[in-house]
Amino acid sequence: MELKKMLVGLEGLKVRGDLSKDIKGIEKNSKEVKEGYLFVAIKGFSVDGHKFIENARENGATAIMIEEGCNLKGVKLPEDVAIIMAKNTREGLAISAANFYGNPSAKLKLIGVTGTKGKTTTTYMIKEILEKAGKKVGLIGTIATYINGKKIKDSDRTTPESLELQQLFSRMVEEGVEVVVMEVSSQSLKLHRVDGCKFDIVLFTNFSEDHISKNEHPDMQDYFQSKLKLFDMCKTGIVNVDDLHGAKIPKLFPESNITTYGIDNFANVLAKDITITNAYVDFKVKITDRNERVKTGIPGRFSVYNSLAAICVAQKFGIAPEIIKEALLEVRVPGRSELVNNKKELTIMIDYAHSPESLQNILQAAKSYTRGRVISVFGCGGDRDSGKRPIMGEISGKIADYTIITSDNPRTEEPQKIVEQIEDGIKKTKGKYEVIVDRTEAIEKAIKMANKKDIIILAGKGHEPYQEINGVKYPFDERIIVNEIIEKLEKNEK
Q: What is the number of other CB atoms lying within 10 angstroms of the CB of residue 386?
């Protein structure tokens, strides 16, 4: 593709060299650059791509994009390549990648789901409904990427980098996908990963404190404003108006076509007569022009909200109530209120809850339907917002009957330091607890003390099949861990 055509949509560029060059590919990693490529230099949190400009040229780059105000000390800009200076090279990468791959999102019905919680479950619900209705569907999110029902890769992050995203869209177009439903993180919006995407529908689930750190958002205002960017990129919006921040969105975008949903406040799609058990939720809701009884096998009040969001999307596609009901009944999401089958027949639930509100939701849900004790096993991730650690400790201390504080993904932090911060919060309560830093030992203790009336909540890991310690991801699938522990205990009993 002609370099000039790849830059369409980017404003304020300063250019040196020939824009008629034929570009054969685009890369932000200098090691992956090949002959005839455009290399986009991006200043990351730990590495500045501008330092590798010469490496990119050696590998065959014929055009290089740099950022205005970048540090070029000690860097020699090659004379024989086109140099493009952009105001922001993350935006430059996103737009030029979208152009290079023929703006594939415009050839798809693209649904973006944002919010602090519920993104993953909601996207899976939407995917299930659309597939039941006969649509060819792509899904991009926290757990994995799917094309036409087939998992093609596990995910490294909620929303891929812009270059990978456009490559995925292009592949989906080639494979006949009609609709793509994707999780859109606040970080991806802030870092321009979805620039150049043409969204047909965007959906806002809720908003609460999370992702406040030096490498994410400095404060809650920045976090919320990042999410709002999505509503400037869509034709139709769907919003949870029971959420305080969600309720503001229709007023902020008065000319947008926004559908609202909720339980407590007036909304276009409203759930009534809700029943919650340890195995399902069901509720009454008006779909199209008649009242329906909807049931889903994911317990908890939050599942009602996620189901309502999916119903709103389904109605935009004109999908019949019978199909919607069947899909919501059958949908299952890895690591979200996921029950682990085991020989002891204990109720053990794995959930991705890793924020104060999500932990509170899953523990309260468990508390509402268990006949015995709620045993909470959780930790907090390292190199993330440390302020939420004592809050989560306090929440577990107030709700759970017994808490085992353990390690999650400590990353580069000391696990002991993290659990001590959690402990500071639980000490404010009268909750019974103990600290077992080793997560396997913590799970074993929970299993040993539980009976069939109790419920064990393993919070924080969810679908993750690893534990990250000092930059290394060690295998750690809690489904496997649980059953290995039970087998070991059975052998010891013989």
A: 15
Task: State in Å, rounded, how far the first CA of the chain is from the last one.
Answer: 70
485 plus 356 within the same structural domain: yes
Burial class of residue 167 in the structure, from the number of CB atoms within 10 Å of its CB (0-12 exposed, 13-18 middle, 19+ buried):
middle
The per-residue pLDDT for range 295-340, each reduced to its tens digit, is 999 988 999 999 999 999 999 999 999 999 999 999 999 999 898 9
Q: What is the distance between the alpha carbons of residues 441 and 449, in angstroms, rounded to a whole number? A: 12
CATH number (domain holding residue 274): 3.40.1190.10
Report the CATH number that the domain containing residue 13 is assigned in CATH: 3.40.1390.10
Domain boundary residue, one of 266, 296, 330:
330
Joined tokens for residue 64:
């290089």
Distance CA 338, CA 473 (A): 22
276-283's contacts with Cβ under 8 Å and 24+ in sequence apart are: 276/300, 276/301, 276/365, 276/368, 276/369, 277/369, 278/347, 278/366, 278/369, 278/370, 278/455, 281/307, 283/307
Integer CA distances (angstroms), 95 to 11, 34, 102, 321, in order: 11, 20, 11, 39
Q: What is the pLDDT of residues 363-399, one digit of tens each?
A: 998 998 889 999 999 999 999 889 999 999 999 999 9
Question: Which residue, among 298, 422, 431, has the nearest Cα to 375 in the 3D structure?
Answer: 431
Q: Does one domain contain both 220 and 278?
A: yes
Residue 278 has pLDDT above 80, yes or no: no
What's the mean per-residue pLDDT of the chain?
A: 94
Q: Please check whether residue 440 is in contact with residue 481, taking contact to mean a CB–CB distance below 8 angstroms.
A: yes
Give the domain extent around 274. 104-330
Instruction: State yes or no: pLDDT of 217 exceeds 70.
Output: no
Amino acid sitting at position 248: K
Q: State the Cα–Cα distance between residues 433 and 41, nearest whole angstrom.
A: 49
The pTM for the full model equals 0.88
Gap between the Cα atoms of 458 and 379, Å rounded:
9
Ramachandran bin of 112, using left for φ above 0, alpha for ψ from -120 to 50, beta for the remaining angles: beta
What is the rounded distance in angstroms from the CA atom of residue 216 to the CA atom of residue 195?
A: 18
